[in-house]
Amino acid sequence: MSQCDPATPSPFKSQAARVEQLEAEIATLRKQLTIAQREGASIEGVGEYCFAELSGERSTLAQLFGAHDDLLVIHNMGERCLYCALWADGLSALTPQLDQRAAFVLATPDSVASAREQVAARGWRMRVVSDADSEFAKDMGFEGLADAGGVRRLPGVSAFHRNADGRIDRVSAATFGPGDTFCAIWPLLELLQDGVRGFSPLSALAMRQLAESAARLPSTNSM
Length: 223
Description:
It contains eight helices and nine strands.
C-alpha cells in the first residue's frame, strides 16, 4: 500500500493521495467480495468423491486433506488451456508455503498419462489428481456447457474444511480469469507501457525447449 504522508518518499508524486485512496477502496471491496464468496459457495456436508493419483492409485476427497483439516483444490481446465497452466505455474512456486497452512491439490480433467506429462514439462510442485471420471467439478459449479471438444471446465479454486466429526464442508470458492489476483503476472504486465499487449502463455513444449536451451548454455561457474 502507498503512503501519502508528505514526509514519506513515494513513487507516485502528485498522485500519491489518489493511489492510496483507490487502494483503500479496493481493499474494502475485496473484504466484501470474500464475504460474498463464502456465503455463495458454502456447501455443508460435501459428498464423497474419488480421484486418480498420478501414481495410478485412487484417493477420496477426505484423503486429499492429509494431516490438515483445510484443503484448497484448484479446478484446472486441463492441458488444452494455456491460461490454466499459467495460473498453475505461479501457484506451484507457492506450494511449500501453502502446505504449511492447508493441503493444496490441483484437479485436472486430463487423463493420468496426460497429467503426468504436463507436470514433468512444467515442473509443478503441488499434488495433482485427475477428476476426469468424477462429478466433482460439476457439483462444485466448475463445469460449464459442452463445446465442440467436449465438456468445458471452468477455472478456479474451492476451499474445504474437515470438521471434528469428519464432515467436509466447502467454505468458499473463487473463479480465475485474466487480471485476477491469483496470477501475479497480470498486475506486473499492466505496469508496462502497453500493458498486456498480446501476451500469450507458453505451452509445455515451449517451456521444455527453453529449459533445454538454458541447460546447453555454458555455466558461469566455469568461466
